Amino acid sequence: KNQVEQSPQSLIILEGKNCTLQCNYTVSPFSNLRWYKQDTGRGPVSLTIMTFSENTKSNGRYTATLDADTKQSSLHITASQLSDSASYICVVSPYSSASKIIFGSGTRLSIRP
Amino acid sequence: DTEVTQTPKHLVMGMTNKKSLKCEQHMGHRAMYWYKQKAKKPPELMFVYSYEKLSINESVPSRFSPECPNSSLLNLHLHALQPEDSALYLCASSAPGTSTYEQYFGPGTRLTVT
């Protein structure tokens, strides 16, 4: 069964600190893996998108990595800001059905001043 | 323009009401989606339109009726909803045939059924 699991479920860090969020998936083969940021009550916003052949992708203070051998991805946030408080969702697009993307349950990140 | 817009932002309706949610995009995308998201849960796919034709219906109850009048517009007609249908309804669009097939999400409509 195609699954996407994220850890931790929630995380609290102090402003200015770095953090890393994890995503493990069983989807194979897949077209791409994406990380979204979702503020409470708002739609998800894309942070990074990687195809199966890419290892890393950066977007400002956000850096995503992908290890297709171990089926793991991570999202590293550098120098966190209060505005980074949100849910971060890992999404995998199966090669066989690009319309039915598979969402992880997300990591709820809280940045404390 | 890389934006998906949704109206209204908030909607409160009774179980006997009929209302509609609207979604619009002007990116030339030919695939559009409706998702339902409950609090602290990931979005759940409801419907997919591809080239203005319904291609996926994830066994959604008939009280939800989608409509795609043209390639830029997607509606979700609501009738006789239940309180458990209260949720954030998200619209998304993508360009079929591209290698990334990225879905762009709208801000959502917060629906409350009383």
**Relative strand content of chain A:** over 45%
Report the order of strands and helices of chain A.
Answer: EEEEEEEEEEE
Counted beta strands of chain A: 11
Question: Cα distance, first to last residue of chain A?
Answer: 41 Å
The secondary structure category of chain B is: mainly beta
Q: Can you tell me the overall shape of chain A? A: globular
Query: What is the count of helical runs of chain B?
Result: 0
Total beta-strand segments of chain B:
11
Explained architecture:
The complex is a heterodimer of chains A (113) and B (114). Chain A has no helices and eleven strands. By secondary structure, chain A is an all-beta fold. In chain A, strands 2, 4, 5, 9, 10 and 11 form a six-stranded mixed β-sheet that branches. In chain A, strands 1-3-8-7-6 form a five-stranded antiparallel β-sheet, with no helix packed on it. The model of chain A has no long low-confidence stretch (mean pLDDT 94). By secondary structure, chain B is mainly beta. In chain B, strands 2, 4, 5, 6, 9, 10 and 11 form a seven-stranded mixed β-sheet that branches. Chain B has a four-stranded antiparallel β-sheet with strand order 1-3-8-7, with no helix packed on it. Chain B is globular and about 40 Å long. The chains are: A mainly beta (113), B mainly beta (114). At the A-B interface, strand 4 and strand 5 of A face strand 5, strand 9 and strand 10 of B.
